[in-house]
């Protein structure tokens, strides 16, 4: 995992809303842990990176890229890996 890549994308997404960088880093670490849980075969960090790369690719066409990035980060952060299907 390229933690620098993810952290830079995270900082870009929360910058307009963050008042305390420590809290932003805490939440970032929690999200990374969640998407790194064993048993995540689809909604994992590879999936998040793919989505974030798409946002960058299509940024000129997006009217709300920050909001889309935040939705990407949170869209399946809470997931029951014991449930079959992994949301795919």
Essential attributes:
mainly alpha, single chain, 0% strand, globular, 88 residues, 58% helix
Give a quick summary of the entry:
The protein has four helices and no strands. By secondary structure, the protein is mainly alpha-helical. It has one domain (3-74).
Give an account of the 3D structure.
This protein is mostly helical and 88 residues long. It has four helices and no strands. The chain has one domain. 58% of the residues lie in helices and 0% in strands.
Q: How would you describe the shape? A: globular
The first-to-last residue Cα distance is: 22 Å
Number of individual domains: 1
| Class from helix and strand fractions | mainly alpha
- Amount of beta strand: under 5%
CA radius of gyration = 13 Å
- Uncertain runs: none
Counting DSSP E segments of at least 2 residues, the number of strands comes to 0
User: How many helices?
Assistant: 4
Instruction: Give helix and strand order, one letter per element, not per position.
Output: HHHH
Q: Provide mean pLDDT, rounded.
A: 89
Q: Largest sheet at a glance? A: none
**Helix content percent band:** 55-70%
């Amino acid at each position: 995992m390229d933690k620098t890549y993810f952290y830079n994308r995270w900082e870009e997404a929360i910058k307009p809303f963050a008042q305390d960088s420590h809290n932003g880093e805490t939440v970032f670490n929690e999200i990374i842990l969640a998407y790194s849980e064993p048993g995540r075969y689809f909604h994992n960090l590879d999936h998040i990176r793919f989505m974030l790369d798409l946002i960058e690719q299509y940024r000129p066409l997006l009217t709300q890229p920050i909001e889309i990035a935040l939705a990407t980060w949170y869209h399946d952060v809470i997931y029951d890996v014991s449930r079959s299907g992994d949301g795919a």
